[in-house]
Amino acid sequence: MMAAMLSRVSAIAAKEFAHIRRDPRTLIAVLIVPIMQLMLFSYAISFDVKAVPTVVLDQDGTSASRAYLQTYRSSDFFAIKGSINDLASVDEAFRNHLAQVAVVVPPGFGRSLAKGEKAQVFVIVDGTEPNAAQLGQAYTVALNQLYDNKVLVKWADRQGFDTTQLGRIEPRIRTWYNPERKSADFLIPGLMVVIIMIVTVQQTAVTLVRERDLGTEEQMMVSPLRLPELMFAKLLPWTLLAFVDMVVIALVGLYYFHVPLRGSVMFLSVSAGFFVFASLGLGLIISAIAPSMESANIIAIMVAFLPAFLLSGFAFPLESIPPVLQGVSYLFPARYMIVISRGVFLKGAGFNELWPQLALLGGYSLLVIALASVLYGRRAAR
User: Fold this and answer.
1) Integer Cα distance of 112 and 98 in angstroms
2) 174 belongs to a structural domain
3) Judgement on whether residues 340 and 229 belong to the same structural domain of the protein
């Protein structure tokens, strides 16, 4: 009984491998394109904001204003591109993409500091790029607080106060898991998940539709092959190719982008297996309901690409999206796998920390494969 089942499954799997081998475009799409996507996305997507173009307007022209502006020149975050002559030039610099930040020191800045009064400065941020604008505002506030503390200490010294006896707070900030705060360390474990989901769902989505187009679907249905065996045989070649993709992408991340791998490789492999089966199951569901290969491709892109990017936590925390969409995100396996991938790569997490995501992935994969079998069985019975 078991030998007969293995013989039937291996025959269909061999036929699927033959289809793949005879179509070089499929092999390129499955093995080469994911690596190209990884390289492209890794360089094109970055959350590192440095050297923000900045212009300055010094209307005070004193040594105090020059000392204040020097703090911006000494910062890695701001890149001073030059000085402007008036406030009207700020808008011109923003519209011509010459600057994203403008620092304006009004007249009387130095005189106010000398009198121990609060001296005002104006920092104008281009809000058309919200990420850079938000970080620019945060850096500016922090920089001004540091400069204000220095001014306060100098004023106290001039008044004869012994500032060495004052208590001070000395913050020592450390970043765990990604001390250099590199975008690549954050992005690549997530990109591996997103790319594999896109490739597996899209390629599997057309596999059963192709059988209908080629006229071989009826032959398989009248054969001794059972429906679960057909599903497993169809999944097997794509599972192996997906694992090859994951290994290659992981190696590129480790040795080219120097992403750390601190956790268990075995746990990551088991999780990846469930994730691949879940993604392939989604592809089989699409293949069972799509009327043509064109519609299968379109549905696969809609199901794989957009949710993998927007509803998985890949680009931004899921806590920041509306609650309704947070609920929808549970319908896609990338949500669970990205937590596992980043936990294993960056935090050294394992089964004790990530078993809920692993359990959800396992249940998800069984559910979608069972649903694909039911849908395909109903279609074949028509």
Assistant:
1) 31
2) no
3) yes
Q: Which domain covers residue 77, as residue numbers?
A: 52-165
Instruction: Work out how many domains the chain is built from and give that number.
Output: 2
Residue ending a domain, among 132, 165, 198, is: 165
Question: CA-based angle 44:331:345, to the nearest 5?
Answer: 50
Instruction: In whole angstroms, give the CA distance from residue 233 to residue 204.
Output: 12
In Å, what is the CA distance from 100 to each residue of 89, 134, 225?
A: 13, 11, 64
Both 122 and 143 in one domain: the answer is yes
Q: Give the closest residue to 186 by CA, choosing from 319, 314, 50.
A: 314
- E strands, the chain, where? 52-58, 78-83, 101-105, 122-125
pLDDT band at 113 (very low <50, low <70, confident <90, very high): confident
Structure confidence by residue, pLDDT tens digits, 325-352: 888 888 889 999 999 999 999 888 888 9
CB-based contacts of 311, cutoff 8 Å, min separation 6? 318, 321, 325, 328, 329, 332, 334, 335
pTM: 0.73
